[in-house]
């Protein structure tokens, strides 16, 4: 009997966790490079420098790393503002968990305040329960119903 598992067509194209991580890293790097290039162009426009910024974002960022292209201070401010907007956006997207309001008096506190008999009893709502009685029936102490209202026999 062969112990190795052969791939079926059902799981042949299913992406694994490593593929999702790699794709996330590629998109994250592209977003970071795009944000840095946008901040570089905006910083040069705001500071009014006459140095031309290359149209290729990767070439522009390599020239900044080499020192042939200057990174203006306005670019840093634009990048910080963009990061702040992103953080506020992500905070707004996170779901908030609302907990149920906690009771003001727990059973443990009721036990300490009122004692065990009250803590284990049902809560008092102001209403009492009475067993339904047939109309016109009067119950005596021996719990046998009589027909008359005055407790006598109806005969």
UniProtKB/TrEMBL annotation:
Parts of the chain that traverse the membrane: 21-40, 69-93
Sorted UniProt keywords: Membrane, Transmembrane, Transmembrane helix
Superkingdom in the source lineage: Bacteria
Protein name: Uncharacterized protein
